[in-house]
Amino acid sequence: MVKGLIFDCDGVLFDSLHANVAFYSAALQQLGMPPIAHDDREKIYLCHTVTTPELFEAILGPERLEEALQVSRGIDYSRFIPLMVPEPGILEALSRLSARMPLAVATNRGGSMHDISRHFGLERFFKTILTSKDVARGKPHPDMLLLASDRLGIDPANLLFIGDMDVDQEAARRANIRFVGYRGRFAEAINITSHNQLFDLIEQL
């Protein structure tokens, strides 16, 4: 029986690719590096999946990590939030879902998630919003999902995690939470293309 839902942010609640690339490009340019090219698939993938420290370490190396983090902390992410586009029907779906069961967010984003939440008024839908700042290890480690389970007061077996990347599926597997792939073709998972499909899914499981 499904008693609660956990959502990833990027690619699930929002199309945030342009915002993320713009933010990291701004930081890299301040560090004397070129912006991220729109055809650089490897770096764009990092923008969408890993934590900020992991991205900077991958691009700049560990020796410039602290410098990069200091620069990024000085950039106001709120100026990039208008580039984020809510997934179709997501706000209405969250309103209806939150009336039925507790919801949570588990994202590898850092502090910017709370700015995004305030901008779009997400607090009214979610009982807890967890970011990479709340755990020692981000996804694909299970820490964030297990903390969400604890905060919601719901056993992992009674939760669904909706994500769009391999790191999401792996985190769900390690946390023993059933995974729902959003707009993907994940093996050994339920796949959906619309958040409205969650209503029927909840009834079926």
Automatic annotation (TrEMBL):
Gene Ontology BP term (one): DNA repair
Enzyme Commission number, as recorded: 3.1.3.18
Pathway listed: Organic acid metabolism; glycolate biosynthesis; glycolate from 2-phosphoglycolate: step 1/1
GO molecular function, one term: phosphoglycolate phosphatase activity
Catalysed conversion reaction: 2-phosphoglycolate + H2O = glycolate + phosphate
Pfam families reported for this sequence: HAD_2
Cited InterPro entries: HAD-like_hydrolase_sf (IPR050155), HAD-like_sf (IPR036412), HAD-SF_hydro_IA (IPR006439), HAD_2 (IPR041492), HAD_sf (IPR023214), PGP-like_dom2 (IPR023198)
Signal peptide as annotated in the record: none
Entry GO CC: cytosol
Family named by the database record: Belongs to the HAD-like hydrolase superfamily. CbbY/CbbZ/Gph/YieH family.
Protein known as: phosphoglycolate phosphatase
Protein's organism: Syntrophotalea acetylenica
Species classification: Bacteria, Pseudomonadati, Thermodesulfobacteriota, Desulfuromonadia, Desulfuromonadales
